[in-house]
């Protein structure tokens, strides 16, 4: 009986562990998902480095305002480029068909994501306006691409 309890508790602990590395600075809070995580993209994955995350975060600070025009789905929810510090972000790395390294960035409003679930799996939400949005950062061209801001249900 003792072995069954230990096995059960061990499996619960393993299930609750974070998949992603939690990387937090004064400017941002992110989850870095490893190449081995079974999220979103199945092939041509890589684990982003902290240096790559910093490059992407700098691009968000300096370039997001320009790609975020015309403020899609931000009339009754936050303007994303003005509220970057209020989002947690999940980072996934993949290599596109041109062989370029891409960071997929999934952004979540901090007040809505108080638990650690965001460190364990990608958080996908169907509505919520600009409380949830995603974008890609091309590490080769240093450009932001494919901004998608959630709509409203």
What's this entry about, in short?
The protein has 153 residues and is of the alpha+beta class. It has 2 helices and 7 strands.
What does this protein look like?
Strands 1, 2, 3, 4, 5, 6 and 7 form a seven-stranded mixed sheet that branches. With 153 residues, this protein is of the alpha+beta class. The chain is globular and about 35 Å long. Helices cover 22% and strands 27% of the residues. The protein contains two helices and seven strands.
Mean pLDDT: 88
Beta-strand percent range: 25-35%
Oligomer designation: single chain
Order of helices and strands: HEEEHEEEE
- Helix share bin: 10-25%
- The whole-angstrom Rg is 17 Å
Topology:
Blueprint: H1 2-16, E1 21-24, E2 29-32, E3 45-46, H2 50-67, E4 87-95, E5 101-109, E6 132-138, E7 143-149
Parallel strand pairs: 2-4
Antiparallel strand pairs: 1-2, 3-4, 4-5, 5-6, 6-7
What keywords describe this structure?
153 residues, 2 helices
